[in-house]
Write a structure and sequence with these properties.
This protein has 20 helices and two strands.
């Protein structure tokens, strides 16, 4: 692959497109697994295995609580070591193989024939193991970006490339999973449903490549505010059509509105560009560059949004009167079909992780003279206001994304359900996400780091290192 061209001060590397795409393939790989879990695992456990939604919600929350302790352990372990294959990228291989195996075992077709007690044990063990292994891959993967260059423009391009790849994974899973189930069972494909599930991802392929231009026109915060406003309007349109109109007769309108909601939720993808900023600010204050530690904390916040969504959705919907385990499923429930589609995504993901390992080169890595402790991590969290705000944004924006993800499959079939069930579906697909976008806007407003200040910090760090 083409080598980096170093320009300016040490650490401000320019990257080739082969390197950017090579790195981004890792996000595509992980999203083939993560989006399957985020969008379809709750439906699998409730509609295929018929496990009580309250148990499923509790399981998702419990696994995320475990991850709140596990992710910092992983981050601490990685920051304090320097493997021969690369401080961070080595784990793409070390964790990639067991991650693929765990993903394939997540939806065993034999589990549908087991007793309810065995199903619960199986769901608990398989999901917990998968989540823990996922952190071993995801945390160092996020750290690679902060180790490739200090150049803010390069970081933005790298983030854009990474998020385009991530959204390719998202659209493949969200549209491809129901299509794959139908193809496996030789059934007619519900194209309205498949398109609605995935069309919100389309803005990523237009906006993310244009980020450098949009950022210059609108400014960093202005860009975020614009995206959030468009998303809010999109959710309002979806609610209005679902509440007062006919979803089946308004296909074009709801597709446009769904695209608009995708624009707003895209802010979640852009938050990853702030993580290297937080790492740099920490290095400026402490002299250490705790990339894995910060990414571990970001991962906890990201998964916290997902876990809160997975916990609240089945519980509240059941309380309102929509029991996912007893109502008619929006997707086929054949266990063999679910296992096959999940396994295909997992195996393709491993190939992409290998490509990411080959395409990512670390240029800025440090191993602390004194090992990072949990006390140091807590101290950093308390001292770093930027980190606190970024973690808060992660929680809220991904809560907005994932609280609607499993229920989206039901929106296009809204007319099939009772008024009570329709209200539950609209609550989770439109009302709650819209409110959460307003909260995200407030947190973005409070974020203090400007690009000008970051350039000053980076130059001072390089000047300090050169002495």
């Amino acid at each position: 692959m083409e080598n980096q061209i170093q320009t300016g001060n040490n650490g401000f590397y320019k990257l080739s497109w082969m390197q950017r795409i090579g790195y981004g393939s890792g996000d595509l790989a992980q999203n083939l697994i993560f989006q399957t879990v985020a969008t379809y695992l709750m439906l699998y456990l409730t509609t295929v295995l018929k496990i009580n939604p309250a148990f499923v919600g509790g399981l998702i929350l419990a696994v995320r609580l475990i991850d709140c302790f596990w992710s910092p352990v992983v981050g601490k372990f990685i920051d304090n070591r320097n493997p021969k294959l690369g401080k961070y990228r080595a784990y793409l291989l070390y964790g990639g193989i067991p991650l693929t195996i765990a993903a394939c075992l997540l939806m065993l077709p034999q589990a549908a024939e087991w007793s309810m007690g065995m199903k619960m044990v199986y769901a608990t063990v398989s999901y917990t193991v998968l989540s823990m292994i996922y952190s071993v891959v995801n945390i160092p993967y996020g750290s690679i970006m902060a180790s490739m260059t200090r150049d803010n423009d390069e970081v933005l391009i790298l983030t854009s490339t990474r998020m385009v790849c991530a959204n390719i994974g998202q659209i493949v899973v969200q549209a491809g999973f129901p299509i794959g189930l139908a193809m496996f069972l030789h059934e007619a494909i519900n194209w309205d449903q498949a398109v609605f599930m995935a069309i919100g991802t389309i803005p990523a392929f237009i906006i993310l490549p244009s980020l450098p231009i949009l950022k210059k026109l609108l400014g960093k915060k202005g860009l975020y505010y614009t995206l959030l406003t468009i998303g809010f309007i999109g959710f309002a349109i979806l609610f209005s059509v679902g509440k007062f109109g006919d979803v089946k007769e308004s296909t074009l309108i709801i597709q446009i509105a769904k695209i608009m909601t995708g624009v707003g939720l895209l802010v979640g993808s852009l938050m990853w560009a702030l993580v290297p900023e937080v790492i740099t600010e920490s290095e400026y204050r402490t002299g250490n560059r705790p990339a894995a530690t910060v990414n571990a904390l970001a991962g906890v916040a990201f998964k916290a949004g997902f876990s809160i969504a997975g916990w609240i959705t089945p519980l509240v919907m059941s309380y309102i009167g929509f029991d996912l385990a007893s109502e008619e499923s929006a997707l086929p429930t054949d266990p063999g079909a679910w296992f096959t589609v999940t396994s295909v995504f997992a195996l393709v993901g491993f190939v992409l992780l290998t490509l990411c390992f080959m395409g990512s080169k670390e240029n800025i890595t440090t191993t602390p003279e004194k090992p990072v402790s949990f006390g140091d991590m807590l101290k950093e969290f308390k001292a770093n206001k930027c980190l606190q705000l970024v973690l808060g944004i992660f929680v809220v924006v991904f809560l907005a994304s994932f609280i609607s993800a499993p229920v989206n499959a039901y929106y296009t079939e809204l007319g099939k359900y009772s008024d009570t069930v329709q209200n539950a579906i609209l609550l989770f697909t439109t009302i709650i996400p819209a409110i959460l976008l307003i909260i995200v806007g407030y947190l973005v407003y409070k974020y203090p780091l400007t690009d000008e200040r970051l350039d000053e910090i980076n130059k001072e760090i390089e000047s300090r290192n050169a002495q």
